[in-house]
Amino acid sequence: MENILSRIRSFDYSQKNAVLVPAAALGVGGVLVYWLTSRHKIKTIEMGDGWWGSGERPLKGKEDESIRPFKIETSDKEIEDLHHRLEQARYTPPLEGAAFHYGFNSSYLQKVVAYWRNQFDWRKQVEVLNKYPHFRTTIEGIDIHFIHVKPSYVPHGRAVQPLLMVHGWPGSFYEFYKIIPLLTEPARHSLNEGDVVFEVICPSIPGYGFSEAPHQKGFDSIATARIFHKLMNRLGFKEYYLQGGDWGSHITTNMAQMLPQSVKGLHLNIVFDNKRGLRRMISVMLGAYVPWLVGFTREDVRRMYPFIQKNIYELLRESGYLHIQATKPDTAGCGLNDSPVGLAAYILEKFSTWTDKSFLHKDDGGLESKYSLDELLTNVMIYWVTSSIVSSMRFYKENISKGSLTADARVGVYVPTGIAAFPQELAHTPRTWAKEIFKNLITYSYMPRGGHFAAFEEPKLLAEDIMHFVRKVEQL
Predict the structure, then answer these.
(1) Is 396 a catalytic residue?
(2) Lowest mean pLDDT segment, chosen from 20-29, 38-47, 423-432, 458-467
(3) Is 321 tagged catalytic?
(4) Catalytic residue among 246, 356, 408, 465
């Protein structure tokens, strides 16, 4: 009897093993497969949703998705009010020999204002602005302004690449007016044989220019990225290229992190590198003496060192505005929104030192060596006539105060990426550092000249680099 019971127990035990061992193996195998696949799964930023209109989001009814033609207009009243304010301006005499070291030199400012009052023709510039087709459409409760320029001629069998270009602060969609014809009609401008042709979409960031300002708190670059994806989808595009500088760089990077399947390629003319730590510190220390050991080129060394001067002192000197706008934008914005002279000084000072750091030593800030006063004042007027300086400044508080810049920095960018590194940019990010963020870096170009406002200052150089990048991506 005991022999029979022992056999039964032995049979039960072997039966359990026959079930448990494969189950355990399957479980361990499943965990291993999940671990291996999750390692290669691309982490993305959640798209989410939002409402930025006035009041509560309507519970019923679908949002109006129509795309409406838009035209910039002006009036005698608007121009007369501007002239009156320009005539009433008060100035503080500059310190002797101050040049632009204390900010915008008031002696030169008076010359700019005299031109603005007596020679600048806003009606004519409105016609210039209206030469490209403007539109508005409502997304998440606010009206989004954009220009959409298609090529006038496309060779038979040639694909047109949609390209979304995003500006920053204190710029506008107008920054792209000189580069648009180079991208939409490259053959006419002797840029290439017409093998790469674009249709260009340039939106205004909400709260900038002719895009409605958000009515709710919290509107950051991720919300902007989502809205611009919705805009491109509404225009009928499933895949598209992106390009950006300043805030535009951050917004388009977020777009690539959010919906990588929709982004054919990402081209940037500035890279925001927020990485810190011991490894980065060692890289900086060794880079000055043995650059090859940490992946730096000679050009990286030339642009980055002396490190304390170029990456700490100069950035601190040029970022005072950022601390104000990231904390109490509405306070500083009151005066700027009320005084066109104050607004011009505040904005145009950036077009001086951000274009070339050496312009700090010039009495006129070197402004007219790179731009015309008509170009500079047209950009200022876009802020003035729309009363958008305060809402544009709030974008800093919404992004910086809640740490969204560092949060999304932990998400890699896996779409094909091209970087145009301009020598006068506020800070230089070497290729080896850029590759830590952009995992699929296709092109990295050391541009021969130019600064922060690349499309505005060096449109041909930037257009050539965009085409070079897209050509490589299309050959992948």
Answers:
(1) yes
(2) 20-29
(3) no
(4) 246
